[in-house]
Design a protein that fits this description.
alpha+beta; seven-stranded antiparallel beta sheet; four-stranded antiparallel beta sheet; 17 strands
């Protein structure tokens, strides 16, 4: 047995369009860079992206930030744009580190914590009264790097008291003992950036990057390289800003200093909150060392966002892109289509034959309304002998008993049901009595067609009116 099956077929239309590139690689130290607005807003989005699973913003895909360009919304609103452009690849370089926790000897019950990685080290003290602590700081490295290009450390600490039941003896009662459970984690991050010529796919409906493919490393011969000297050369020399420490003046604006503090607080706070909300919980995240992955996610997103504002300068240059639009098409099975076509032709053929057989039967059935409604039934059966016969009956068995051995026809003039024995019943002869065979019916149809003009004006009493002989089961 065959059935009609289909699959979705995608028809692709390709078209080359020239647009404007809106930015090129170059160090952008605008007002938002100087007052740290670019950094604090990027930290806020990176924090929210982890806590609320936000998608990447336009022109950012994972660790890639591409040069912005115009989108041809006036040409097509749904499709894919493919372009060759430039990108900044931001890598966090985050690594786990073992934390050494040593209890203080002064009886205060605190801890001295320390960790090191790749020649950099950090140490911090924790008091016994502290429950949850977190932060991001610069480690000490040898040789000491420039602060704004230095590695950073995400560190976390908790000391949650666990309740244990202690049985002193069989006869004595058990006691509850609250034991502090300190946990600490440190993640060293060594941020870097690299420049690439890339091929990108952009979803025009959402303006999101769906794919970034590296072609070759960016060079002075690459497209859109006219302003890149201050990134590849002085003052950056290819280094990446860590986004945590900034080269502020001796007497910085208090609002600028507040933005630096807010930036350094938001990133570790988001990591800590995500660990608390996870299925493992806070202590489980410490035991599973999940803080490394969480810190990597937050910091990589943060670096990609600040790259969009810091490593691109506004500049227009022509850019040729390729548009691909997609249209869904239904692909039908050839076997199923042919079988369905044959079945429909057979249905049309036999349906036409049935209509020819019943043409003469319907000739005098001049209904001025569509049958099948309550109003139609009342119009045909009200104030008739059949209506009086069924009056007062509601049960199906009573209907069958009342209509037993009764015959009915339709008066072609009044369009009313006539019961056997009523006036006019003898003139409503049944057409089924005339139909001896299929061929005889067809011959009768030809004769009726020749006399079609004679039926254009109805007579007061037709010679062969429509009649239906109905038994109780038909009604």
């Amino acid at each position: 047995m065959f059935r009609l099956t289909y699959i979705t077929y995608v028809l692709t239309h390709r078209e080359d369009v020239t647009l404007n590139n809106l930015g090129v690689i170059g160090l952008n130290q605008d007002d938002q860079f100087q007052d740290l607005t670019s950094f604090v807003t990027a930290a806020g989005f990176a924090s929210a992206s982890v806590l609320y699973s936000l998608p990447d913003p336009p022109f950012v895909h994972d660790q890639y930030t591409i040069a912005p360009f115009e989108l041809p919304r006036d040409i097509v609103a749904n499709g894919t744009l493919i372009a060759n452009t430039t990108a900044v690849k931001s890598e966090s370089g985050c690594l786990p580190a073992q934390v050494n926790m040593v209890s203080k000897n002064d009886g205060s019950g605190g801890w001295n914590n320390s960790a090191s990685s790749n020649g950099c080290a950090i140490a911090w003290e924790v008091e016994r009264t502290s429950v949850n602590l977190f932060g991001v700081d610069l480690p000490g490295c040898a040789p000491a790097p420039t602060p704004q290009f230095s590695p950073i450390v995400f560190w976390f600490f908790t000391c949650v008291s666990r309740v244990t039941i202690v049985f002193e003896s069989v006869v004595t009662r058990s006691q509850l003992r609250y034991e502090p459970t300190p946990r600490a984690s440190a993640t060293f991050c060594f941020p870097t950036l690299s420049l690439w010529d890339v091929n990108v796919n952009v979803d025009l409906a959402t303006a999101n990057l769906t794919q970034v493919t590296e072609i070759r490393p960016f060079s002075s011969s690459s497209n859109f390289s006219s302003l890149s000297a201050n990134v590849t050369g002085a003052p950056l020399f290819g280094h990446a800003y860590n986004g945590i420490q900034f080269n502020l003046s001796a007497n910085p604006d208090p609002f600028v200093q507040g933005r630096q503090t807010a930036t350094r607080l938001q990133l570790p706070a988001a990591v800590f909150q995500e660990a608390v909300q996870s299925t493992q919980g806070l202590l489980g995240s410490f035991d599973a060392d999940r803080f490394v992955d969480l810190s990597t996610r937050v910091y990589t997103t943060y670096l990609s966002l600040i790259a969009r504002n810091v490593y691109f300068l506004p500049h227009k240059e022509p850019l040729t892109v390729q548009l691909r639009t997609f249209q869904n098409r239904v692909w039908l099975s050839s076997t199923a289509v042919h079988l369905l076509a044959v079945a429909m032709l057979l249905l049309a053929f036999f349906g036409s034959i049935v209509h020819l057989f019943h043409r003469s039967d319907r000739r005098k059935l001049r209904l001025r309304h569509e049958p099948g409604t309550i109003a139609s039934a009342v119009s045909i059966g009200a104030q008739t002998g059949m209506g009086n016969l069924l009056a007062g009956h509601q049960d199906e068995k009573e209907f069958a008993k009342a209509l037993s051995n009764k015959k009915f026809r339709i008066d072609p003039q009044k369009m009313k049901i006539i019961m056997e024995g009523e006036d006019g019943y003898e003139f409503a002869a049944s057409p089924m009595e005339r139909r001896k065979s299929v061929f005889a019916a067809l011959q009768a149809q030809r004769r009726l067609s020749k006399r079609f003009s004679a039926w254009s004006k109805p007579s007061s009493m037709p010679n062969s009116p429509l009649a239906h002989t109905l038994t109780s089961n038909n009604v």
